[in-house]
Amino acid sequence: MEDLAKLYQIRFSDEARDKKDAVWKVLCESYFQQFITPSSTVLEIACGYGEFIRHIAASDKIAIDLNPDSEEYLPEDIQFHLGSATDLSMLDDNSVDACFSSNFFEHLPSKEVMDEVLAEALRVLRPGGVYVAMQPNLRCEPGKYWDYYDHVLPLTDRSCQEAFFKAGFDVTKVVARFIPFSTDSKLPQHPLLVKLYVNLPLVWPLLGGQFVIVGRKPAKV
């Protein structure tokens, strides 16, 4: 856990975190909120510095991460748990309306571990609940994907969709190309330009390097 904290301290300066946070505010308000009702209980898996969970509108917010530094960046109304996404034992079955993760699966050591993460997410979700994930797409950025020391598991939009199906989710949406590979790449940084980009889906196939997948827990599992 200390190694993870050190790696992210190196990778993200205070200025970089602030810029990333501003981008995420727009992404939440202009795109991801459509999948989550404001009355929901939301769990962010591998929350990092909390860019998503801070800005999404929800009644109850829960976050989990292996990085001990994460908690200090979260408001007090967010329930934080330090630990692995393969063990959500602090949460009851069928207790969460939505799960979210971003740029997470590629850090997992194996497909077997990803299966465990998806199984735990499915367990805690209520029937009809959704798991929304955004991921770098190896199919779109085969070189840049490996530029990060902690990227381990190779995934495309298609292989991730198979993983969700295998875990028992109904996949209701896949966007193969959404935003660029990283928030410090081609994506405009000014909030107004980010909002403009998000509202111009015809541009996504030209610049997008990350995919979005939405899996829904069936009414009966």
UniProtKB/TrEMBL annotation:
SUPFAM superfamilies found in the cross-reference section: S-adenosyl-L-methionine-dependent methyltransferases (SSF53335)
GO BP term, pick one: methylation
One Pfam entry name: Methyltransf_11
Domain Methyltransferase type: start-end pairs: 43-132
Molecular-function GO terms, alphabetical: methyltransferase activity
The entry's keywords: Methyltransferase, Transferase
Protein name (database record): Class I SAM-dependent methyltransferase
Native source species: Candidatus Marimicrobium litorale
Taxonomy of the source species: Bacteria, Pseudomonadati, Pseudomonadota, Gammaproteobacteria, Cellvibrionales
